[in-house]
Design a protein that fits this description.
It contains eleven helices and 14 strands. It has about 290 residues and is an alpha/beta fold. The chain folds into two domains: about 130 residues, 3-Layer(aba) Sandwich (Oxidized Rhodanese, domain 1), CATH 3.40.250.10; about 120 residues, 3-Layer(aba) Sandwich (Oxidized Rhodanese, domain 1). A five-stranded parallel sheet has the order 1-7-6-2-3. It has a five-stranded parallel sheet with strand order 8-14-13-9-10. The longest helix is centred in the middle third of the chain and has 13 residues. It is globular. The N terminus is likely disordered.
Length: about 290
């Protein structure tokens, strides 16, 4: 059976794909796979990118809603965008970011596509950084992408609202996870109206889920991820709400818990601390403790 068919059979929710697996897919003339480059600088794409990759900046995936600057778009907007990029429900999608610094862009898009019901979504482990280190084929040519009619039935991401987070502050079966760096969590840094974190939130910096292997930045093993999260009381028997400043870092935690470790109840608060901190009626805590 062809590698593409094998991957399609395995895919239920987003998962990792190795550089070797993607290389094998691209080497097949009859393979039908969409590749999306979500690195945060168009110039890098113009300089070199993986063959067949179309460019998409993560900021095209969100916009202001009622003044909050970083909220998800709606079904109509995503339908138009992904039709333009040539996505189809019967075609696997491979997403890659820089790898070493912005893995969050890839997981954010994966979370959105999962919410749209896209059946086969993969995040490239190690991203473009690992692909380059292995001297794999790159190009400067743009792919020939024919627009499609991308028609998801609904957009139902695993998403938490501000009211959901407020209600969870006193819920024993819910754990709130702050995916930002420790300085922002503690209130020593940050551009939001107030600094600090949502009371009771556990600090789990998203980059802690990654490791250096042969100079490339890749995901930790599932066993190591499981031990790391469980050690902080982030366990599969609880509902997990992940937040950051605007949904990107928390999508990385979502990918780790929901898609790699198969936690059953994980949601992303996309308004995140950007929305929460602006509401002066809501509590904010500073310091290194929950």
């Amino acid at each position: 059976m062809m590698l593409l068919a094998c991957l399609a059979l395995l895919a239920q929710s987003p998962r990792l794909i190795s550089t070797a697996e993607l290389g094998a897919l691209l080497a097949q003339r009859d393979s039908n796979v969409s590749v999306i480059d979500v690195r945060d600088d168009l110039t890098r794409y113009l300089e070199s990118h993986i063959p067949r990759a179309v460019y998409l900046h993560a900021e095209e995936l969100r916009a202001a809603e009622r003044g909050v600057p970083n909220k998800l778009l709606g079904l109509v907007s995503y339908t138009a965008l992904f039709s333009r990029l040539g996505l189809r429900a019967d075609r696997p999608v491979v997403i890659y970011s820089a790898g070493e610094t912005r893995d969050i862009d890839a997981t954010y898009l994966a979370w959105i596509l999962e919410g749209l019901g896209q059946p086969s979504v993969y995040v490239l482990d190690g991203g473009f950084g690992k692909w380059s280190l292995e001297n794999r084929t790159v190009t400067r040519r743009y792919p020939v992408i024919e627009p499609t009619v991308f028609t998801p039935a609904a957009f139902t991401p695993d998403r938490a609202t501000l009211d959901d987070v407020k209600a969870s502050l006193t819920a024993r079966d819910v754990v709130i996870v702050d995916a930002r760096n420790p300085d922002q969590y503690a209130g020593r840094a940050g551009a939001q109206l107030r600094r600090g974190h949502i009371p009771g939130a556990v600090s789990h910096f998203w980059q802690g889920d990654l490791a250096k292997v042969d100079f490339a930045t890749v995901w930790e093993s599932r066993d190591d991820l499981r031990v790391s999260y469980a050690g902080q009381g982030i366990t599969p028997d609880k509902t997990v709400i992940a937040y950051c400043n605007g949904g990107l870092e928390s999508s990385h935690v979502y990918f780790a818990l929901h898609d790699l470790l198969r936690y059953p109840r994980v949601r992303v608060y996309d308004g995140s601390f950007t929305e929460w901190s602006e509401r002066v009626d809501l509590p904010v805590k500073t310091g290194d403790e929950p």
